[in-house]
Write a structure and sequence with these properties.
28% of the residues lie in helices and 35% in strands. The chain is an alpha+beta fold.
């Protein structure tokens, strides 16, 4: 398990460390609904959110970026009280608790910011580590859109909508 992880606001100076793992994860096409060929400027604009939304990085004691998360209102208007979030962990640092640290941080951020709940719109059912992590943090699978995601190796698989009341 990871010890000494610090989660802090992401800055423009962090993007060069985020982009390589962001690009590799998206290009693999196994866990995100983003276009697999999404270019760097579009990726940066989608990930590096301006306030009141938030993008953070998880770093180790040496300042190495281990992962990142973005948090925002999941909906607008009368449903703006529901938060959303997305997470990416550099595969070189996976399995060490970075995702859990980012998930706990995001839930706390949403709660202290005044959101009533958090919803994940698209958790690929074959991403079993992520599904198990979110369930361990109190998220429920509300429904699964059958064949909602085209996995490059497994074909059409389900896409979960997950929810947690805060």
């Amino acid at each position: 398990m990871l010890t000494g992880v610090l989660i802090r606001e992401a800055t423009a100076a962090d993007w060069p460390a985020i982009w390589p793992f962001f690009h590799a994860i998206v290009a693999a096409g196994e866990t995100y609904t983003y276009p697999r060929d999404m270019d760097e400027p579009t990726s940066r604009e989608m990930w590096m959110l301006a306030p009141p939304s938030r993008t953070v990085v998880a770093v180790d004691a040496a300042g190495t970026v281990l992962g990142s998360a973005k948090m925002n209102a999941n909906h607008m208007g009368a449903a703006a009280h529901i938060a959303g979030a997305s997470f990416m962990v550099d595969p070189a640092h996976g399995g060490r608790g970075v995702g859990r640290a980012l998930g706990e941080y995001a839930v706390d951020w949403a709660r202290t910011t005044g959101f009533r709940a958090m919803q994940f719109n698209a958790v690929v059912e074959t991403n079993t580590r992520a599904v198990a992590l979110w369930q361990s943090l109190g998220f429920e699978i509300m429904t699964t859109l059958p064949e909602g995601f085209l996995h490059p190796a497994k074909g059409y698989v389900g896409l979960h909508i997950m929810y947690r009341r805060l």
